[in-house]
Amino acid sequence: MKAKDNPTASSMLKKHDLIVIAGAGGFIAGALARYFHDQGFTRIRAIDKKPLPEWYQVTEGIESVCLDLSDDYNCRKACEGAVEVYNLAADMGGMGFIERFRIECLRSILINTHMIEAAYRAGAQRYFFSSSACAYNVELQKDPNVRALKESDAYPAMAERGYGWEKLMSEMFCQEYRAERGLHTAIARFHNVYGPYGTWDGGREKAPAALCRKVIEAKDTGKHDIVIWGDGHQTRSFMYIDDCTKGIDMIMHCEKLIATPINLGSDFLISINDLVSMTEKIGGIKLEREYDLDAPRGVAGRNSDNTFIQKVLGWAPSTTLEEGMKKTYEWIEQQYEDRKAGKRTVS
Ligand code: NAD
């Protein structure tokens, strides 16, 4: 099957069906809200606990609501009348955040626990949960030359402490709501998502955005060095935001993927050192590298095995890292300039 033949929201929903998106003040859910809006859906309810002025994107024509979704009552309000519910709300960030704030990460279980019950009670037709590659067994990620992770590698379970275990438990909720109550649930395990309108400073940012910022800062300040977390040999794959929103839509509407966790990520593996070189090339500069071996660095290597998604959807994320990084760099450069000029920015 070609990607274009897969059922999507556009082929399955009426344009006035209510789509509820949790975490929409953040990066991915903000992009998802815009994605549905651009397809002509007229009733999108975007929700986040952050006050509206702090949202990364506020799209005109979308109902944007500030609610703390770790609260049961708020989740019921959020899901009222929903035909589809997408839960992407979580207290999260890059390695610097998830290794330091495990309690905050674990507490996100409250969000999914209440949201899925609220979606079920509201009679929603479908429920989406954003899981993570951090749900995979860390024992399989000790070598930079890792074999890519396939869906069955989550068990026997030894997920990332805190954040990964929360994802694994919430996945189980989705599976049991399907098994016991018949709710159509969908679960995607995202592998590092990056792109414009993501966090780029402040401690929650991930490697691609952090490296863009550091290169831009070095150019601006004339201090031509860069601090890299770890020895730079760690490997990862990175998915561009547009592939992520498209993938979410197809996964949510695929009858073969009900309550079935699936990788949503790029399978192009790159070391952090090579990602630094790519970012330097985009910025047109070469920097002196300093390695901070005490900084959080996460697992040694992680990649997405895309055999399953290719088989079921005939599609996998395909934006090249170079193309995506260029767009991300340009956006962060503009943000950097805006901040210097005293304008409001995302981070
Ligand atoms: P993000 O931090 O930009 O967005 C998450 C949003 O959830 C934030 O705006 C936050 O304010 C909101 N939120 C947190 N607690 C809330 C609550 N109690 N009530 C309402 N809103 C609340 O993160 P993101 O990168 O957009 O990630 C979205 C989802 O994807 C998360 O579930 C995350 O775990 C998952 N994920 C992301 C990545 C990635 O690379 N970005 C990788 C794997 C999984």
What report would you give on this structure?
With 347 residues, this protein is α/β, with parallel strands linked by helices. 38% of the residues lie in helices and 16% in strands. It contains twelve helices and 13 strands. Helix 10 crosses helix 12. Nicotinamide-adenine-dinucleotide binds at residues 23, 25-29, 48-50, 68-70, 88-92, 111, 130, 132, 190, 192-193, 199, 206.
List the helices and strands and how they pair.
Elements: H1 9-12, E1 19-22, H2 27-38, E2 44-48, E3 63-66, H3 72-79, E4 84-87, H4 95-98, H5 102-107, H6 109-121, E5 126-132, H7 163-181, E6 184-190, E7 193-194, H8 207-221, E8 225-229, E9 235-237, E10 239-240, H9 241-252, E11 262-264, E12 269-271, H10 272-283, E13 288-292, H11 307-313, H12 321-340
Parallel strand pairs: 1-2, 1-4, 2-3, 4-5, 5-6, 6-11, 7-10, 8-13
Antiparallel strand pairs: 9-12
Give a summary of the structure in a few sentences.
Helices cover 38% and strands 16% of the residues. It is of the alpha/beta class and 347 residues long.
